[in-house]
């Protein structure tokens, strides 16, 4: 039986399982657009500001909401599922069949990427319909966005792959989650930070992603440094995860 | 067992260590096509490690493993197509239902068995809609057996086949295993049940401390024991068990509720009877029976550990 057939069959089963327990999807699909909608209710956030180059705070929250979907998926949901599969010896059983344990990881990656896309689409919709927040340079934004989702999923795979147990994976995921919220600008717009702080945050995957997306919101191409940072994180985390992944 | 065809499984000098622990040490074994080989041995003797090596899950530190002519750790895809494996411990996605698991695993193979028919054979029909975590231990065990056999494997590795099964399900599983063998599948099964070994297996391999210490048919193993007789009686007065143990040929003496059991050879039987007559003790209800596989197995393991301690 070909490997694509088994991968597709496993993906089908994993899709049913994910839809059977939609609770985890709430944080990826519902929470980020809802946060954007709630923050937009603050009148100040809807007022253009000289400090933000004539943009409104809500305009800068749109990139943050897009990236938040990827953070939720890759730090909170995906490592929990994968490390549970290892701890409960599911990966071990699949390793004895023509399907591979890797088929389960692939399916989880595809499903979480899909959920992230849906959550981001909803955030775009909420921003546009409720607050007329839009991204001036869509192509530029799409480029940054795809690289950002890849970097986040690679980091999620790294956590899932190296954590010795499901409990540890959840502890590490949470520990990384809060700094990630900060670098993604959930608490304070990154571009409003002092220059030196912005440079440091720009070296993190989500800082680079949000800064790049903000340039797209303003209608510009992203600074190549942001793209390089994202690609570097993806390759580094992906390579370490692939090399040191614990199958048992 | 003689056969003209190439063996289904061939182990040569198999050795596997985990850190400083030698799990399997220098095992040579050939399993003929269509044979049912039982693997016996105490807990921690290395049985599951041997299964892992045959399944290609573990890479030997020395020696070779051939499964239908290929190295299962190297040529994973080929080996996995031909092998059906029931591991001693393996899970499933917690919310995956029995019917979904059967359909999914069936889709991995070119010519799978009918999932509904297999579920029926293993008494799972009424559990088809249940999730993995909602199954009892015995039901999970039966599903694991179904998943191992659903691809019509040429070789089935069954680690602790009937652990956790009630006697009725055990009979169902045994008849299924026999039928699978009739259809041409070679089977290696790890068991702690002598009844199972005797009922199903053509040959038995006894593993102790990583080494294979016996390889014989069940009848051959019983016949090879140095103490082929078991005496049971209720003595009319108390018997000095240490004296019985001191006789040549007596392998084991145990006393239960007013009964004494002696495992011994023919000379030992006579020595015990002479001793009882001299002491004026009457052995009420005396029965002398042939040693069973149970005793033969314990005898083989005991001799091995005595040898190791000497």
Automatic annotation (TrEMBL), chain A:
<feature type="transmembrane region" description="Helical">
    <location>
        <begin position="171"/>
        <end position="190"/>
    </location>
</feature>
<comment type="similarity">
    <text>Belongs to the ABC-2 integral membrane protein family.</text>
</comment>
<feature type="transmembrane region" description="Helical">
    <location>
        <begin position="24"/>
        <end position="42"/>
    </location>
</feature>
<protein>
    <recommendedName>
        <fullName>Transport permease protein</fullName>
    </recommendedName>
</protein>
<keyword id="KW-1133">Transmembrane helix</keyword>
<keyword id="KW-0812">Transmembrane</keyword>
<keyword id="KW-0472">Membrane</keyword>
<keyword id="KW-1003">Cell membrane</keyword>
<dbReference type="Pfam" id="PF01061">
    <property type="entry name" value="ABC2_membrane"/>
</dbReference>
<feature type="domain" description="ABC transmembrane type-2">
    <location>
        <begin position="23"/>
        <end position="248"/>
    </location>
</feature>
<feature type="transmembrane region" description="Helical">
    <location>
        <begin position="62"/>
        <end position="83"/>
    </location>
</feature>
<dbReference type="GO" id="GO:0005886">
    <property type="term" value="C:plasma membrane"/>
</dbReference>
<dbReference type="InterPro" id="IPR013525">
    <property type="entry name" value="ABC2_TM"/>
</dbReference>
<keyword id="KW-0813">Transport</keyword>
<dbReference type="GO" id="GO:0140359">
    <property type="term" value="F:ABC-type transporter activity"/>
</dbReference>
<dbReference type="InterPro" id="IPR047817">
    <property type="entry name" value="ABC2_TM_bact-type"/>
</dbReference>
<feature type="transmembrane region" description="Helical">
    <location>
        <begin position="135"/>
        <end position="159"/>
    </location>
</feature>
<feature type="transmembrane region" description="Helical">
    <location>
        <begin position="225"/>
        <end position="245"/>
    </location>
</feature>
<dbReference type="InterPro" id="IPR052902">
    <property type="entry name" value="ABC-2_transporter"/>
</dbReference>
<feature type="transmembrane region" description="Helical">
    <location>
        <begin position="104"/>
        <end position="129"/>
    </location>
</feature>
From TrEMBL, chain B:
<dbReference type="Pfam" id="PF00005">
    <property type="entry name" value="ABC_tran"/>
</dbReference>
<keyword id="KW-0472">Membrane</keyword>
<keyword id="KW-0813">Transport</keyword>
<dbReference type="InterPro" id="IPR017871">
    <property type="entry name" value="ABC_transporter-like_CS"/>
</dbReference>
<dbReference type="GO" id="GO:0016887">
    <property type="term" value="F:ATP hydrolysis activity"/>
</dbReference>
<dbReference type="InterPro" id="IPR003439">
    <property type="entry name" value="ABC_transporter-like_ATP-bd"/>
</dbReference>
<keyword id="KW-0067">ATP-binding</keyword>
<dbReference type="GO" id="GO:0005524">
    <property type="term" value="F:ATP binding"/>
</dbReference>
<feature type="domain" description="ABC transporter">
    <location>
        <begin position="9"/>
        <end position="234"/>
    </location>
</feature>
<keyword id="KW-1003">Cell membrane</keyword>
<keyword id="KW-0046">Antibiotic resistance</keyword>
<dbReference type="InterPro" id="IPR027417">
    <property type="entry name" value="P-loop_NTPase"/>
</dbReference>
<dbReference type="GO" id="GO:0046677">
    <property type="term" value="P:response to antibiotic"/>
</dbReference>
<keyword id="KW-0547">Nucleotide-binding</keyword>
<protein>
    <submittedName>
        <fullName>ABC transporter ATP-binding protein</fullName>
    </submittedName>
</protein>
<dbReference type="GO" id="GO:0005886">
    <property type="term" value="C:plasma membrane"/>
</dbReference>
<keyword id="KW-1278">Translocase</keyword>
<dbReference type="InterPro" id="IPR050763">
    <property type="entry name" value="ABC_transporter_ATP-binding"/>
</dbReference>
<dbReference type="InterPro" id="IPR003593">
    <property type="entry name" value="AAA+_ATPase"/>
</dbReference>
């Amino acid at each position: 039986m070909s490997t694509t057939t088994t991968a597709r069959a496993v993906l089908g089963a994993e899709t049913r399982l994910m839809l059977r327990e939609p609770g985890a999807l709430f944080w990826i699909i519902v929470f980020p657009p809802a946060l954007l909608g709630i923050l937009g209710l603050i009148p100040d956030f809807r007022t253009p500001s000289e400090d933000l180059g004539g943009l409104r705070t809500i305009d800068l929250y749109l990139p943050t909401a897009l990236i938040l979907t990827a953070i939720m998926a890759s730090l909170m949901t995906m490592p929990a599922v994968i490390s549970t599969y290892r701890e409960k010896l599911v990966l071990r059983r699949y390793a004895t069949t023509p399907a591979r344990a890797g088929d389960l990881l692939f399916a989880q990656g595809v499903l979480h990427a899909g959920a992230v896309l849906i959550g981001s689409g909803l955030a775009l919709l909420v921003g546009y319909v409720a607050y007329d927040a839009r991204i001036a340079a869509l192509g530029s934004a799409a480029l940054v966005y795809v690289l950002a989702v890849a970097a986040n999923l690679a980091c999620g795979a790294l956590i899932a792959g190296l954590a010795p147990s499901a409990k540890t994976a959840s502890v590490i995921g949470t520990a990384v989650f809060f700094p990630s919220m900060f670098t993604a600008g959930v608490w304070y717009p990154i571009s409003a930070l002092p220059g030196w702080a912005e440079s440091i945050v720009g070296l993190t995957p989500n800082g680079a992603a949000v800064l790049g997306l903000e340039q797209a919101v303003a209608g510009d191409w992203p600074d190549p440094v942001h793209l390089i940072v994202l690609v570097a994180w993806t390759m580094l985390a992906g390579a370490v995860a692939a090399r040191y992944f614990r199958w048992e | 067992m003689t056969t003209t065809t190439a063996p289904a499984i061939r182990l040569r000098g198999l050795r596997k260590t985990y850190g400083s622990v030698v799990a399997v040490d220098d095992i040579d074994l050939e399993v003929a096509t269509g044979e049912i080989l039982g693997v016996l041995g105490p807990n921690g003797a290395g049985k599951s490690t041997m299964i892992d090596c045959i399944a290609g899950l573990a890479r030997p530190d020395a020696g070779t493993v051939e499964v239908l002519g290929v190295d299962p750790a190297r040529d994973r895809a080929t080996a996995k197509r031909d092998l059906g494996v029931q591991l001693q411990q393996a899970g499933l996605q917690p919310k995956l239902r029995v019917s979904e698991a059967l359909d999914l695993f069936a889709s991995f193979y070119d010519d799978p068995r009918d999932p509904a028919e297999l579920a029926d054979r293993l008494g799972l029909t009424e559990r088809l809609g249940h999730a993995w975590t909602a199954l009892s231990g015995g039901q999970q065990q039966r599903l694991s057996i179904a998943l191992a056999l659903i691809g019509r494997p040429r070789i089935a590795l069954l680690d602790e086949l009937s652990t956790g099964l009630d006697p009725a399900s055990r009979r169902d599983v045994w008849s299924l295993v026999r039928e699978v063998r009739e259809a041409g599948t070679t089977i290696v099964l790890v068991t702690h049940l002598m009844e199972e070994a005797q009922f199903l297996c053509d040959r038995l391999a006894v593993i102790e401390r990583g080494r294979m210490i016996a390889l014989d048919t069940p009848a051959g193993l019983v016949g090879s024991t140095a103490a082929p007789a078991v005496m049971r009686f209720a003595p009319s007065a108390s018997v000095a068990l240490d004296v019985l143990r001191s006789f040549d040929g007596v392998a084991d003496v145990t006393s239960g509720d007013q009964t004494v059991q002696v495992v011994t050879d023919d000379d030992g039987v006579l020595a015990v009877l002479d001793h009882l007559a001299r002491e004026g003790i009457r052995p009420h209800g005396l029965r002398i029976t042939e040693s069973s596989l149970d005793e033969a197995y314990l005898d083989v393991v005991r001799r091995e550990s005595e040898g190791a301690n000497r």
